[in-house]
Amino acid sequence: MYANAPASFKRPGRVSTLYLLTALFGAPIAWVAQLSLSEPLAAQACYPYQMPLPEPVWQGLLATLALISGACLAIALLSGFMAWTLCRQTRAPLLEERDDRAQFLAKLGAMSSFIFTMAVLFTACAVLLVSPCSPWH
Amino acid sequence: MTDSADSPLIRVPEMGCAPLGSDAEIRLAGLWETEPGWRGWLSTVDHKTIGLRYLATAFIFLLLGGIEALIMRLQLAQPDQTLLTPEQYNQLFTMHGVTMIFLYALPVLSGFSNYLWPLMLGSRDMAFPRLNALSYWLFLFAGLFLYASFPLGQAPDGGWFNYVPLTGRLYDTGPNIDVYALGMVLLGISTTVGSINFIVTLFRLRAPGMSIDRVPILVWGTLTASVANVFAVPVVSLAFFMLWLDRQFGTHFFDVVNGGKPMLWQHLFWMFGHPWVYVVVLPAMGIVSDALPTFCRRPLVGYAPVALSTMATMLLGFGVWVHHMFATGLPTLALSFFGATSMVISIPSAVAVFAWIATIWLGRPVFNTPFLFFAGFVLLFVIGGLSGVMTAAVPLDFQLNETYFIVAHLHYVLLGINVFPVVGGIYYWFPKFFGRMMNETLGKWSFWVMFIGFNAGFFPMHIAGLLGMPRRIYTYAPNMGWNTVNLITSAGSFVFALGLLLFLINVLVSLRRGAPATENPWQASTLEWAVPSPPPAYNFAVIPVVASRHPLWEDWLDEGAGRSSLETGYLLMEGRETLGTTPLDARPDVILKMPEDSYAPFFLGLFSSLIFAGLLLHAWDFAGLMIMASGLSLIAWLWPSKALVQRVPAVKPDKGVAHV
């Protein structure tokens, strides 16, 4: 079917799918996990029943949240590393060796990793800077 | 071209050309044209007709919502006005919000995307043409459903976010909220089926060679919004359905007295509501990203960053919903997570802004009317974005919550980032839609009047908010210090409306007297400008082969490894056919048999809407009857058709050689 296909259908050697998927989705998934785990824990610890509390019901709340943030940051950074590696792999000086699609996806992975690593860091800052419960309750 | 044993393409499509007036072209037109008269009007599945219907219907709703706003501004122009009663005011501001956010903002973008996607992607139609028609009919009927109770004084009146317990049976005894709840579930079906159609179309119906790094940004914007809809819309549909059950059958999802949770409503609504904000702005940003470069005479700066920022904004948009709930008493740390994300979201937004500014800066701008709207949009985007970052700070939001500052912010976002690109987009694609140019002089007048009116109308709202004016009050005392800002706001809103009126006059005049348009009057780069204006029923006589991101600028830019083939391509004319391609690389994969026109989408949409009417009126038998009628429509829709067999059973070389 593709033997005589136009040049634009042909693709040079491919990059690892696992690498690509991690580069593209690793950091976003890390951020989603961080938010999905941290918010319910923080909310439940300070507002478990009908009344808000001035202190969290679990002493280890902040340590748990810090651990979650640390793990998510590690995943995000790993994703960024893979994206950076892919960007280097897909850079080709010669036009005929270029795989625009792979290069594009590698770029997306790098940018996605950067933005969502920032999101993980910003969320982690909230854990470090803000008191867990509302002190005026 | 040869065929391999494992190719799913079975029949090998012939390559050739079919110039206007050739036998092949005439045959294609016969295959794709809709029957004239009312039969064709009700049964058409042509994406162009559906797109224009979306646009026209959405603009009618825009006018209705605009008139509601003007009546409210008359009421608020001076203190102690008695033009409206409090109940009338409640219904007006609720219907204004519902209309603008649900019946105008997304449907108008669906109109653009429905019309433009197959043309931009090099296809002959959307992936599911009948689903496309159903999506439109459901939208129309949901709009009529929501408006039907308005003349009876029973329209939704709890604000567009419809907080419980105010909207529970105890405090709102009429049918007002039931209309809203059922109407939103109905509209949700329309949005969901439309979104699925867009997603499949992007991944399967791109022209050969249009790999994922070559699709226009508008396509990225609508794709992102569609994926978000698939996740967000079920949440709000469920919330409204639960509220309806509370109100009609005494369940206690949101009933405080019986252990229900009002906060559950807020969470469900805003889990949908905030992503929805991005759903109604990202495709509009895509319009600017695609059209602005045409007037800057250069490609968009940072295609990949803009595409990525579109998707990142949407995903982050799912993690900010609690910033609408900062004043609800949730624990501080839980709030701060959402404040943090609300600030991070400014990074991808800023990427897009800098890309547009750089495109203007590095290009050679031509100051046509569309350019003015797009450049104006960039400024309004920055203002609306900055006030958004301000309200992302929890302590500041405590002060600004429920004031006119928030009203100013959301109007800068929704009008600035939606209406301005949409009007600019109409000026830009009008020649393609109707084969005529719009009047430039009137266009420039409409821009400046709209721009000045918009800023005069909405910027003072920030000040009103800082002066402590709460939103949703139907009047105020003369000694509050809000008189001047309200008067200026009201005057500005009428100037803005005048600008919009000038635009509509321009549309009507240009439809009749506009200068005839060539196929590419702006010298643009994307595929839709390769077909005649207006496009023929079949879109492309041959399915083109694409070799770069800017198929019509290749000679000039000298980019890519080869040249796109627009005159010679895949001839597919054994019935209504188009080419299915692989999701990432857009390699030819399958010949898709496209359905004929059908009444089934119209009747399914009609009967489905009547089910909801039956539920609203407690006419259970009637609702049951309509369920059966909907079932029959579905059977008619899905009845096996020989013409729709997607893969031809045996290898069969295409007949004929010369389709010229």
Which key phrases capture this entry?
heterodimer; A: 137 residues; mainly alpha; B: 660 residues; Cytochrome C Oxidase, Chain A; 4% strand; disordered N terminus
Describe this structure in words.
- The complex is a heterodimer of chains A (137) and B (660).
- With 137 residues, chain A is mostly helical.
- Chain A is built from three helices and no strands.
- The longest helix of chain A is centred in the first third of the chain and has 30 residues, at 17-46.
- Chain A is rod-shaped.
- By secondary structure, chain B is mainly alpha-helical.
- Chain B has a three-stranded antiparallel β-sheet, with no helix packed on it.
- The model of chain B is unreliable at 1-5 and 655-660 (pLDDT under 50).
- Chains A and B meet through α1 and α3 of A and α10 and α11 of B.
Summing up helix and strand content along with how strands pair, one would put the structural category of chain B as: mainly alpha
What share of the residues of chain B does DSSP label as strand, in percent? under 5%
Number of helices of chain A: 3
- Strand proportion of chain A: under 5%
Biggest interface reads:
A-B, 51 and 51 residues
Low-confidence stretches of chain A: 1-5
User: What is the approximate shape of chain B?
Assistant: globular
Mean pLDDT of chain A: 85
Largest sheet of chain B: 3 strands, antiparallel
Taking all Cα atoms into account, the compactness measure Rg of chain B is 25 Å
* Radius of gyration of chain A, in angstroms, nearest whole number: 21 Å
- Tally of helical runs of chain B: 20
- Per CATH, the superfamily of the domain at 42-435 in chain B is Cytochrome c oxidase-like, subunit I domain
Under the CATH scheme, the architecture of the domain at 42-435 in chain B is Up-down Bundle
Task: Describe the secondary structure blueprint for this structure.
The complex is a heterodimer of chains A (137) and B (660).
Chain A lengths: L16 H30 L14 H30 L9 H30 L8
Helix pairs in contact in A: 1-2, 1-3, 2-3
Chain B lengths: L13 E3 L6 H10 L4 H7 L3 H30 L9 H36 L7 H20 L27 H29 L12 H33 L12 H18 L2 H15 L6 H15 L14 H13 L1 H17 L6 H24 L1 H7 L3 H31 L5 H27 L16 H31 L29 E3 L8 H4 L7 E7 L5 E5 L6 E6 L6 H17 L3 H19 L22
Antiparallel strand pairs in B: 1-3, 2-3, 4-5
Helix pairs in contact in B: 3-4, 3-5, 3-17, 4-5, 4-6, 4-15, 5-6, 5-19, 6-7, 6-19, 7-8, 7-9, 7-10, 8-10, 9-12, 9-13, 9-15, 10-12, 12-13, 13-15, 13-16, 15-16, 16-17, 19-20
